[in-house]
Amino acid sequence: MFRLPVLALTALACSLGAIASSSLSVEYHPVTISGGGFITGFLAHPTQKDLIYARTDIGGTYRWNAKAWTWEPITDFVLNNPLSGNGTNLLGTESIALDPTDPKRLYLAQGMYAVWDPWAAFFASDDQGKTFKQYRSPVPMGANDMGRNGGERLVVNPHSPNELWFGSRTEGLWRSVDRAATWSNITSFPDAYGNGIGLISVIFDPNNNGTAYVGACVPGGLYVTHDGGVSWAQIDGQPTTWSDWTNSIVSGTGTATQSTGPQPIKVALNNNKLYITYADAPGPWGVLYGEVHSYDVSSKTWADITPSRKGANTTPAPSGSTTTVPGGWNGITFGNNGTVVVSTLDANAADSVYLSRDGGNSWKDLGQLATPTGAGGTSHTLWQTRMRDRTLVPWLSFADPGKGILGFGWWIAAVLIDPFNQDRLLYGTGATIWATDTLSRADADQSPSWYINSEGMEEAAVWVLKSPPSGPANLFSGMYDLGGFRHDDLTVPQPMYNWPTYSSTDGLDFAGKVPNVLARVGRNDNWATDSVYGCAWGAVTTDAGDHWNLFPTCPPVVNSTAVPGNGGTVAVGADGKTFVWSPYDYNNVLGTGPYASSDGGKTWTVPTGLTFQTTGLAADRVKANVFYAYAQGNFYVSVDGGLTYSQTGSGLPTGWTWSGTPIASYLRAGELWVSVTGVGIYHSTDFGATFTALPNSASSLQPSVFGIGAPKTASGAETLFFWGIPAASKPEGLYMSTDNGASWLRVNDDQHQYGGPVSLSGDPRVFGRVYFGMNGRGIMYAQVTNVPKNKHRRRH
Ligand SMILES: *[C@@H]1O[C@H](CO)[C@@H](O)[C@H](O)[C@H]1NC(C)=O
Ligand SMILES: *[C@@H]1O[C@H](CO)[C@@H](O)[C@H](O)[C@H]1NC(C)=O
Ligand SMILES: *[C@@H]1O[C@H](CO)[C@@H](O)[C@H](O)[C@H]1NC(C)=O
Ligand SMILES: *[C@@H]1O[C@H](CO)[C@@H](O)[C@H](O)[C@H]1NC(C)=O
Ligand SMILES: *[C@@H]1O[C@H](CO)[C@@H](O)[C@H](O)[C@H]1NC(C)=O
């Protein structure tokens, strides 16, 4: 299918080097949201100050840079590469291992989905993650699967530091003796992992060579070996049934536990004492009950140290209610001299972090201490949602129940007392990182002061990016979980779109000639309450997003009896008066094409000439009432505001397998491009009547990763950007063309791949700028700062 023009072949022969080391100067910047996803674990090196790593479920691993006060991504080299499979799946970190004997060494277990994608890998570094060796893993991993909140599955044997163990989800316990290069199955390990969560926490005893502990996420799942894994025993006396206290809560709530006994979530060892957090489900959600126990490995005695058990919580207003389901327990970190911190798991409104100074006999509830008087649950005040330099993270208010507060946390798996600063505690949530430098205030029943510490961490899943030619912001985004943003300032976190709030903004568009008119469509979880005001899943603004109004009605496929799984795609006519909405109806239940409205959404009309929904939908940016659709390998154009379509597009590949999204020129009516995934980019200047393949075939990896931006010279061609493979044998990457595809320059390099974007847009106002959004690594932009005048002067 890949027809490579002769021209490109000759160019390739003499410029292979130029592709690898791009002659462009490029700066990479995040579009700052800061956080946005689940931080699943922290690890601090015991001997080197400030050497701290954070793992995330879908955005890779970060290393803390204390001097710059920012988290630095260290896995951005991960490819997209859907062809070989070695790609995006490797951007989820299942576990991190540090070598306590050598702070330079770092190991990552990478793999996002254990079932969907067989690609998993171990990354091994000798320079704290500046560079890695990559080894394919013999077992699958699931950094975004259930149980990702657990302890570390990957560990270095401190007595033989070239040896690592890995507790897998489905294939038992594995050992490498060559620093993660090759692995063998420790088949002597008992089969205790039949539930797909597997061996959730593995630790070596630093004081006893040959002793290691493994927590399988099943009742009674705590195992020990004293002979380096030759033989194993279930630890005697471990809790295998729920405590009397838990049973008394169960009878108070009337809701049964989900497992017959406590299931290990995280196992940790401090001064010859094991601490184990337990829950009745792996988490991070769906948990009802849990306990915390300790085990003195010298005296072989167990203790129930659950912070919420009766009498254990010594904060001024003890919790320990017996009428609400309390949730489970998750994170563990240690300080000096008996200091232990644990976190709750899925305690919903009252998720919290508990501090003990006596090895777990008594506890202070840090969430309770932080909670303003009169606020329910455990919470921070909204004014606290600031970074250390007082920069506000305004979107965190999305969790505000309307009282100026937000939950103390949810999905608190990652907790860390800085080993070099006993007053510093970090905890991660499903959305951000909180930190304090005044932990010991809790000893006097005062709240430590908290701030946001997610600088540099970008974790959103971004479906749509649009850059209007004028208006208050160069960028609007639509994303999962956070809904999306108008990015007035790319360096500072912005407020989310205000009402309506979507759990996912799936489609977003502006009007080419009046860009302050925008529409957005997406999944609104508040269907019942919001649909009183109109269509809960579609909204429109005329002031660039300061205020949004719901469309008065929904198209028929979006309705209270059958809300589709996805808001689909929306296109706004150039004059801002016509909207075309293609909601998710991929099974074509209704048998209609994209709905059109020219009365602001009061009525939606079923078109003729196009009889199915498509994400390949766009408006002409200059001429009103002109809409383009590329659907199931056919091209359609409407010149009457989406009421009737005719099939045109001669020169485009046809066949239902092809997908692509039309992108219309900001400058010229009737000019557009369609990047046909896996085939090439096609250009039309006659409203889509005819297309020509751009001379150097270029092929994007997904329909939505092609975009256009400001031309190099005022009268010149708009700059084309795409993520893909411009010609066979050229590497996958981000490419741009300033001569309408006659030649392509690679913008990114091998260190800046981000697992590949799923959304992309040029900037019509700034030459050489391209925004791209990842499924888990937020939004980045690349700014090209110099472009060689022509090939012959290019310096390599
Ligand atoms: C993935 O592919 C890249 C590029 O070919 C290679 O450098 C890397 O080692 C591969 N990783 C794995 C785990 O196979
Ligand atoms: C730990 O035990 C292993 C296996 O017996 C041995 O090879 C290693 O040298 C020991 N390490 C130390 C620090 O004693
Ligand atoms: C590894 O060993 C375990 C026994 O501990 C066994 O159940 C599992 O099937 C083995 N997996 C592979 C891939 O060898
Ligand atoms: C350590 O803790 C013990 C008991 O919890 C206490 O008696 C002792 O004073 C503490 N030591 C320091 C240095 O804080
Ligand atoms: C609601 O949408 C479904 C398809 O998603 C459709 O079958 C049904 O007819 C619609 N109901 C109404 C009342 O329009």
From TrEMBL:
<keyword id="KW-0326">Glycosidase</keyword>
<protein>
    <recommendedName>
        <fullName>Xyloglucanase</fullName>
    </recommendedName>
</protein>
<feature type="compositionally biased region" description="Polar residues">
    <location>
        <begin position="311"/>
        <end position="325"/>
    </location>
</feature>
<keyword id="KW-0119">Carbohydrate metabolism</keyword>
<feature type="signal peptide">
    <location>
        <begin position="1"/>
        <end position="20"/>
    </location>
</feature>
<comment type="similarity">
    <text>Belongs to the glycosyl hydrolase 74 family.</text>
</comment>
<keyword id="KW-0378">Hydrolase</keyword>
<dbReference type="GO" id="GO:0010411">
    <property type="term" value="P:xyloglucan metabolic process"/>
</dbReference>
<dbReference type="InterPro" id="IPR015943">
    <property type="entry name" value="WD40/YVTN_repeat-like_dom_sf"/>
</dbReference>
<keyword id="KW-0624">Polysaccharide degradation</keyword>
<dbReference type="InterPro" id="IPR052025">
    <property type="entry name" value="Xyloglucanase_GH74"/>
</dbReference>
<dbReference type="GO" id="GO:0000272">
    <property type="term" value="P:polysaccharide catabolic process"/>
</dbReference>
<feature type="region of interest" description="Disordered">
    <location>
        <begin position="307"/>
        <end position="326"/>
    </location>
</feature>
<keyword id="KW-0732">Signal</keyword>
<dbReference type="GO" id="GO:0016798">
    <property type="term" value="F:hydrolase activity, acting on glycosyl bonds"/>
</dbReference>
